[in-house]
Amino acid sequence: MTGVSGHSRRQALKAGAAVATMVVAQPVHALLGSDSPDAIERFRLAVPPAALEDLQLRLDTARWPDRETVGDGSQGAPVAKVRALVDYWRTAYDWRRCEAELNRLGQYRTTIDGIGIHFLHIRSRHANALPLLMTHGWPGSVIEFLKVIGPLTDPVAHGGKAEDAFHLVLPSLPGFGFSDKPAASGWGLPRVARAWAELMRRLGYVRWAAQGGDWGAGVATSLGEMRASGLTGIHLNLPILFPPPLAGEQNMAEKAALADLSHFGDELSGYARQQGTRPQTLGYGLTDSPVGQAAWIYEKLAEWSDSGGVPENLFSLDEMLDNIMLYWLPAAGTSSARLYWESFTKDFKRVKLDIPVGCTIFKGDNFRAPRVWAERTYSNLIYWNERERGGHFAAFEQPRAFVEELRAWSEALRGRIA
């Protein structure tokens, strides 16, 4: 799109802004009747061409910062890495491929507590499959789970047994992806948990389980704390086990966890402070610049994954951009950041639970809770394991290990609810 006139550029940007709130879906049919307050609509994504043209123009005319003055990522996402990602975005990336995959899996929307909720719902062919609600975090999306959907819903085709099967419900958090953006404050983790419990009720699941890391761990913990109707247990790949009262000399695992928390506070928490205090100001750049949005997410894929700081070692450029597009297309940079303002210092906290809890620690994560803290917090800890490989984005990074962990945890859980 070189040689675009100033007038044409303004016209394209204006068109892009006009469609920014129109990319969510085209309804196909109502599952519970469109007149029902509990209506669930199946829909297909069909992003208007003008939105993609607008993106192309912004990428082609991006203004770049000067190069960092260090040889590593200590000042943030390196210019060379982000430019390579954006060059691929400009010249080779195909959104329609991702769009078709999401449409194939089965997408739905329903309105809960005044907010339209987007979710994937994939039922297993095995009648006794365990319904499992899985929630993503930031800067993630339902894209994180795409590589595990097949093995979890159709285990026999992926080296497992029929009794390993799950029915999957994968919602987008309010303000994320193709869920609606809250228009007023108050959508913290407890409210999201209540909405998810209502979603499972609407889908007709009498007994179900929940799973999550990052914000998803916070939602699952809130579901456990409220003892949501039908909830049989939870699995966490980032258990929220900030230190319980410490007694005596800490063991090596406790010392390592305390060091993790100290390092996070000193070196890695700038994004959380900004999103938790001034999400609106940050949002102007994230909403207006696809390069800014991409760099904001790329940095976390580099720092939080078990990739040695090089996310390309784990994720394809397509995979990273698919996830970034679920922030860019619906202009969710600001609304997703607001969850930090709502809940990071208030709701994302250690909570004692007495429902069945399973935990997997991926040792490449930026916080590795010790088992002793879990035993002091979860009175019904039914599963614990630590994996040598994998980081914060467990299902996205190590799908095979993630599936193995859920199968092992669910075996313990199913034995208790049979």
Textual characterization of the structure:
It is a single chain. Helix 11 crosses helix 12 (317-328). This protein has helices spanning 6-19, 49-60, 79-91, 95-105, 146-153, 189-202, 215-225, 252-268, 270-277, 279-288, 290-304, 317-328, 333-343, 371-377, 394-397, 399-417; strands at 26-30, 40-44, 107-112, 115-122, 130-135, 166-171, 208-212, 231-236, 357-362, 381-387. It has a single domain (1-418), classed as Rossmann fold (3-Layer(aba) Sandwich), CATH 3.40.50.1820. The chain has a 10-stranded mixed beta sheet with strand order 1-2-3-4-6-5-7-8-9-10, with helices on both faces. It is built from 16 helices and 10 strands. With 418 residues, it is an alpha/beta fold. The protein is globular, with a radius of gyration of 21 Å.
Helix % is 40-55%
Structural class: alpha/beta
Number of strand segments: 10
Tell me the fraction of residues in β-strands, as a range. Answer: 5-15%
Physical arrangement of strands within the biggest beta sheet: 1-2-3-4-6-5-7-8-9-10
